[in-house]
Design brief:
This protein is α/β, with parallel strands linked by helices and about 240 residues long. It is about 40% helix and about 25% strand. Helix 6 links the parallel strand 7 and strand 8. Adenosine-5'-triphosphate (ATP) binds next to helix 1.
Amino acid sequence: MIEYDRVSISLGGQPVLRDISFSIEAGEIFCIIGKSGVGKSVMIKQLVGLLRPDSGAIRFEGQDVCGMDERGLMALRRECGMVFQQATLFDSMTCLENVALPLRVHYDLPEHRAQERAMGYLAQLGVSHLAEREPAALGPGLRKLVAIARTMTLQPKALLFDEPTTGLDPLAARKFDKLVKGPLARAGITQVVVSHDVRSVFDIADRVVMLHEGEVRFLGTSGELSECEDRVVRGFIEGKPEL
Ligand SMILES: Nc1ncnc2c1ncn2[C@@H]1O[C@H](COP(=O)(O)OP(=O)(O)OP(=O)(O)O)[C@@H](O)[C@H]1O
Ligand SMILES: [Mg+2]
């Protein structure tokens, strides 16, 4: 469903990713791990056309993302929803209005119908009590849950989560993991999760890619990850600096 084919990109004069290739199957829960600054966010921003690789191709359902015009990109972003690392919400609207917004913009639903559906997604994430709150008054964890609800409203084929559990308390983080493995997986949604949260990765991932110094250091199932003996991989998953 998603294919990175020899993708390279430099940013600010520095090479970030070099010749990265891997594919993500439909319905898979696929985690991207690696140290801060290694290029995880860059990786998924390229998939929705927010950054363009210097060379290589990125395909979503066989279509080259890099060749899409603005219209193509709009359609892509409906099918491939993204929850950003910094949960971006409009502070001038309530949480419910934020979540209802894509339904009004993309499907032209009347306000009350959009809000009814939006409420369902807030409830699914256990935050319906935030409906009338203003996002500015919330901490990063709760903002993130509201942003996730907003992305889910368009019922995308794929969801991209950038650090979804960062800033969440441990209970909310586990709730997120359950959502990924439960309703979202049952709905057949392909899920790409960028994460530092090793526990969460082992809990949810079908497969994992670990990026290191611009390259793929590991690619395999979470079972293979737990048995991987590479020192860089072990250092990361055990939270120990490399020897
Ligand atoms: N728009 C940009 N312009 C210039 N440099 C950028 C830009 N976006 C990212 N970079 C650089 O690219 C590298 C990879 O950044 P990226 O945000 O993908 O890291 P990350 O793996 O997501 O890190 P973190 O775990 O801290 O979120 C970093 O060195 C960053 O400074
Ligand atoms: Mg990042």
